[in-house]
Amino acid sequence: MFRQYLVLVIPGLIIFTIGLIVPLFLSLRYSVTSWDGMSAEKTFVGLKNYVNLFKDKEFIDAWWFTIKFTIGNTIIQNVLALLFAVALDSGIRWQKVYRTALFVPCLISAIIVGFIWLKMFSNVLPEINEWLGTNFNFLLFGDSKTVLGGLLIANNWQWVGYWMLIYLAGLQSVPGDLHEAAKVDGANAVQRFFHVTIPMLTPAITICVVGITTGSLKVYDLLVSSTKGGPGRASTSIIYQTYTTAINGRQYGYGSAMTVTLVVVLLMVAMIQVKGLRKKEVQV
Fold first, then answer.
1. Distance (Å, whole) CA 130 – CA 126
2. Number of Cβ atoms within 10 Å of the Cβ of 130
3. Handedness of CA 113, 117, 120, 122 (dihedral sign)
4. Long-range contacts of 259-264 (CB under 8 A, 24+ apart)
5. 72 closest CA partner among 146, 123, 2
6. Closest CA to 236 of 86, 58, 15
7. Under a CB-based contact definition with an 8 Å cutoff, are residues 244 and 195 in contact?
8. What is the reported pLDDT for 3?
9. In the predicted model, is pLDDT for residue 224 greater than 70?
C-alpha cells in the first residue's frame, strides 16, 4: 500500500523539486555572486548585493509600486467579490448568466487582458467619449498619476469572478438555521450579515485574502502587455524590476538577490495573514 501511494506522490514531488526547490536554491547561490548570467565565472561577493538593494532607488520604487498595487487590489477585489457573491446568493434572476459573465475573464491570459485594456483605454473608450461629447480622461496607462488605477481596473476585471465563486461557495454552505434563529431574535438583514454570515465565511476570507495578496505581489505579465513598467517607471513592479535587472541588464547575481527578498516577503506575508485569519476561524 505504501508503495502505491509513493508511486502517486513521486511524479508531483519531482516536478515540484525541479520547478521550485532547485531554482530557489540556485537563486540563493547566485545572489551572493556578481554573475552576469552568461560567463562561466561567478565571483563571490558575499552579502554585497543585499546591501546594495537598500541603496537602490529603482528597487525601492518598484517595491513601493508593488505594495500600493497589492493593498488596492486586496481591498477592492475582496469587497467586490463578496458583494457579487451576496447578490448572486440572493436568488436574483439570470444568476447563471451573471456568474458565467463574471467568471469568464479569469480564463483569459493576463497578457491578453493587458492588451484588451490597453486597447480599451487608448482607442475604444476615447471614441465613446467623443461620440457622447464628454471629456473624461480614459488614457489611464499614459499618466503616472492614473496608471495604478488603470491596472487595478484591468486586474479586478480579470479576477473578481474567480474569488466571487469562492465566496459564493462559502455563502451557500452557511446553515440556514443560523439565519432563522437570528431573525427570530430580532436581528435585521445587516446584523445577520455581519454577525452570522461574515463569521461563517472566515475560511473563504482567509483563502481569498492570502491568494489575492500573494498574487498581487507577483504581478508581472499584466504589465508586460499593457504599460511595460511605464510611463517612465511608474508601474514597474518588483518582478518586472528583477527581470530587467537580471536579463536585460545582465546582472544575474543582483537580480537573484531581488528574487530572494521577494520570496522572503511572500512567505512572511502569507504566514502572518494565515495565522491572523485562522485565529478568527477558531473564534467562530
1. 6
2. 10
3. negative
4. 259/27, 259/31, 260/27, 260/28, 260/31, 261/50, 261/53, 262/217, 262/218, 262/238, 263/24, 263/27
5. 146
6. 58
7. no
8. 78
9. yes
Given this model, what pLDDT does residue 284 score?
A: 46
Buried b / exposed e over 3-26, threshold 16 CB at 10 Å, is eeeeeeeeeeeeeeeeeeeeeeee
Quickly tell me which residue has 445587516 as its cell: 190
Contacting residues for 258 by C-beta, under 8 A, at least 6 apart: 53, 59, 238, 241, 242, 245, 246
Which domains are delineated in the chain?
56-283 (1.10.3720.10)
Amino acid identity at 90: S
Kindly report the pTM of this predicted structure. Answer: 0.91
C-alpha cell at 226: 499593457
Task: Report the distance separating Cα 76 and Cα 57, nearest Å.
Answer: 28
Taking a C-beta distance cutoff of 8 angstroms, is the pair 208, 166 a contact? Answer: yes
Over residues 29-51, mean pLDDT = 89
